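Researcher: I'd like a candidate sequence for this fold, 441 residues long. If you have to choose between options at a position, lean toward the conservative one.
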């Protein structure tokens, strides 16, 4: 069994990812820590009561964590100190960075000294963390404690999910189960842009000079609720006041056929620039319609006719994405009909499409308690993680761990699929992409 402590647990995206990644292993989250009452309620609603400890993580000490003897720590600390969206981000000196630094530089060394430190650690944060002094401090501490480190910058887009959410991931493992030597990295290195054997490095297609790397991404329609056009009283309709504002053209307007959305932050529905909204009237040209609206509002003629130019924009049937749609884009829940298809041959399938088409299990849907308001749902999802990307990352971490065990010991205790099983230590050919390992802790 893999025993886990989850810090900054929110609604439990890391917990869900770990379960999805290791369906053949018994994973037990012994305790989750977060001070947010709404997030903790949603967590308990989905994972059961008695796991979340609502406390300030800054108040935790080694003596509190020692009894758990956890194998793994999951951490997704506050990202405001590091986000590139915040020009005043203070990094290490931001008070919101304090509890994470306390855990990593004070609590962890004490546990390791007592031989009770976790053997694997996963940290998730925003892109921007990799240039922070917090990262430098944490890497130095981990290296001094004999942890081996691997770092990634990954976005759901590179797995075929139509959402741009570039995130930083740090995987640390303590001797003797560390990453393969070539994969150890040091404070000076840049994070990797792909997981080994999980497709090419991520290069934003908008920055590519040629089409050398093609990503096949599922169209948004797979992730949408079955919805009629929203009425003006729908909570998802874009308020007329906002549509009339001069900032409305700054929305990122996407259609069901689109293969990209923006990040969806905790402030979704309260921001215009960089917020993706859906145009349900797919046949209308967005730019032409906005141009026609601008001309109509500038001319007197339409006013004389009593035609409200806003009707032009209303004909686009614009709306916010619903929380259930965001839960699908963040891979908490699977697409309802599994329609899929980027239309390409199987070899061109994205990682996520291949996962969906081979996945036979019907997972229980992640839900919100009825008492969670719409605003809170958006905030909590915006704070959370892409479950598929994290599950791929943790799968890499845990399978590396398994690999180490197999290289160091007799493999006969392990159940290996599609690979040679023998009574001697084995070398695994990583060039075989479908190599599948079942591991027993
Ligand atoms: C980026 S979110 C993590 C989201 C989470 N991984 C999920 O899937 O929802 C950060 C979380 O840390 C919590 N948090 C921040 N500082 C904290 C502290 N000092 N003590 C306890 N919780 C804290 C916030 O309430 C928030 O839920």
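Model: Candidate sequence:
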């Amino acid at each position: 069994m893999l025993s886990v402590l989850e810090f900054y647990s929110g609604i439990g995206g890391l917990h869900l990812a770990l379960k999805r990644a290791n369906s053949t292993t018994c994973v037990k989250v012994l305790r989750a820590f977060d001070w947010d009452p709404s997030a903790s309620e949603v967590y308990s609603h989905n994972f059961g009561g008695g796991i979340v400890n609502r406390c300030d993580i800054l108040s935790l000490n080694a003596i509190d964590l020692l009894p758990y003897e956890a194998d793994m720590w999951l951490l997704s600390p506050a990202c405001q100190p590091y986000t590139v969206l915040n020009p005043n981000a203070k990094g290490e000196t931001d008070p919101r960075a304090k509890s994470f630094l306390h855990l990593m530089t004070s609590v962890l060394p004490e546990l390791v000294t007592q031989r009770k430190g976790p053997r694997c650690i996963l940290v998730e944060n925003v892109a921007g963390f990799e240039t922070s002094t917090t990262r430098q401090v944490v890497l130095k501490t981990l290296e001094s404690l004999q942890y081996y480190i691997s770092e990634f910058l990954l976005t759901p887009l590179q797995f075929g999910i139509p959402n741009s959410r570039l995130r930083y991931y740090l995987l640390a493992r303590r001797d003797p189960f560390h990453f393969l030597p070539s994969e150890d990295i040091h404070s000076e290195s840049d994070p990797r842009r792909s997981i080994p054997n999980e497709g090419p490095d991520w290069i934003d297609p908008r920055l590519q000079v040629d089409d050398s790397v093609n990503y096949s991404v599922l169209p948004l329609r797979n992730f949408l609720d079955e919805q009629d056009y929203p009425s003006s009283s729908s909570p998802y309709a874009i308020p007329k006041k906002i549509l009339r504002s001069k900032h409305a053209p700054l929305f990122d307007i996407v259609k069901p056929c689109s293969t990209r959305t923006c990040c969806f932050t905790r402030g979704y529905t309260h921001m215009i620039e960089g917020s993706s909204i859906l145009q349900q009237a797919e046949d209308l040209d967005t730019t032409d319609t906005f141009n026609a609206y601008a001309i109509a509002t500038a001319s007197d003629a339409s006013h004389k006719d009593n035609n409200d130019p806003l009707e032009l924009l209303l004909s686009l049937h614009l709306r916010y994405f619903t929380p259930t749609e965001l839960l699908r884009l963040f891979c908490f829940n699977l697409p309802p009909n599994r329609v899929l298809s980027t239309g390409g041959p199987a070899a061109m399938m994205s990682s996520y499409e291949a996962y969906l088409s081979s996945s036979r299990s019907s997972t229980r849907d992640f839900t919100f308690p009825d008492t969670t308001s719409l605003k809170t749902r958006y905030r909590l999802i915006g704070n959370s993680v892409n479950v598929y990307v994290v599950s791929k990352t943790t799968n890499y971490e845990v399978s590396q761990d398994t690999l180490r065990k197999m290289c160091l010991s007799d493999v006969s205790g392990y159940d290996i699929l599609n690979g040679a099983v023998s009574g001697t230590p084995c070398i695994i050919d990583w060039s075989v992409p479908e190599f599948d390992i079942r591991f027993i802790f």
